[in-house]
Specification:
Blueprint lengths: L2 E2 L2 E2 L10 E2 H21 L9 H20 L2 H4 L3 H20 L2 E3 L2 E4 L6 H23 L1 H6 L9 H40 L3 H37 L4
Parallel strand pairs: 1-5
Antiparallel strand pairs: 2-3, 4-5
Helix pairs in contact: 1-4, 2-4, 2-8, 4-8, 5-7, 5-8, 7-8
Main location: membrane
Membrane topology: Multi-pass membrane protein
Keywords: ATP synthesis, Cell membrane, CF(0), Hydrogen ion transport, Hydrolase, Ion transport, Membrane, Transmembrane, Transmembrane helix, Transport
Length: 239
């Protein structure tokens, strides 16, 4: 049985603050991959795009379409970089554990960072906090906080509960799908190695990897779509 990577205990001299070193490693790897890809795809911009620039422009248009589907473009254009960053980062993070798992001794070091609820809930909490920030910024604090007691003050506790449930569902949906995929892939690898199935045993692994890639892409899309839906509820006056 593989165990999680060792913890960095008492981080910064704080007794209750621990870091999972595998998560830290994979977060850095995901960030570097996304940064390098974006720089590479946009290093030599041309009027007639080719190669990676063409793909990058398609990706920008794709995210722009998500924004347009959820709110007025005049209001939502400021969220295009946020949506693009989330889409790329979550997709890359989802894919890292699909391609392979890295085990050193009995410790799992190479995996999808989104297979850890700590990261996905941190992402979802950040998104929800950003929705409140932009809601206040674009609508003004007085008008914004009135929405929490509209149409009657009795709605306030329900609105507060809604914010917590949105945070939990947004983060746990991503975590559950990616974690389940990695667990099943690990089981398949173990069965193939233990049973000596050879090429025949590799077939279900490849099929599951292809399916996990599809699920990883869908979950990145769903996360960005819901982010823009939550944002539109906070910044659009018609909501």
């Amino acid at each position: 049985m593989n165990h999680e990577a060792p913890l960095l205990n008492d981080a910064f001299g704080i007794s209750w603050l621990d870091f999972n070193l595998a998560n830290v490693l994979m977060i850095i790897v995901s960030s570097v991959v996304v940064f390098v890809f974006c720089v590479w795809a946009s290093r030599k911009l041309q009027m007639k795009p080719t190669g990676f620039q063409n793909f990058m422009e398609w990706l920008v248009e794709f995210v722009k379409g998500i924004v347009n589907d959820t709110m007025d473009w005049k209001t939502g254009k400021v969220f295009l970089p946020l949506g693009l960053t989330l889409l790329l980062y979550i997709f890359v993070s989802n894919m890292l554990g699909v391609m392979t798992n890295g085990v050193v001794g009995h410790d799992l070091w190479w995996k999808s960072p989104t297979a850890d609820a700590t990261l996905t809930l941190t992402l979802s909490a950040t998104v929800i906090i950003l929705t409140h920030f932009y809601g206040i910024k674009l609508q003004g604090s007085k008008h914004y906080f009135k929405t929490f007691v509209s149409p009657v003050p009795l709605m306030l506790p329900f609105k507060i509960i809604e914010e917590f449930t949105n945070t939990l569902t947004l983060g746990l949906r991503l975590f559950g799908n990616i974690y389940a995929g990695e667990v099943l892939l690990t089981l398949l690898v173990g069965m193939v190695m233990a049973g000596g199935l050879g090429v025949v045993g590799i077939i279900p692994m490849v099929v599951w990897q292809a399916f996990s890639t599809f699920i990883g892409a869908i979950q990145a899309y769903v996360f960005v779509m819901l982010t823009m839906v939550y944002m539109s509820h906070k910044v659009s006056s018609d909501h």
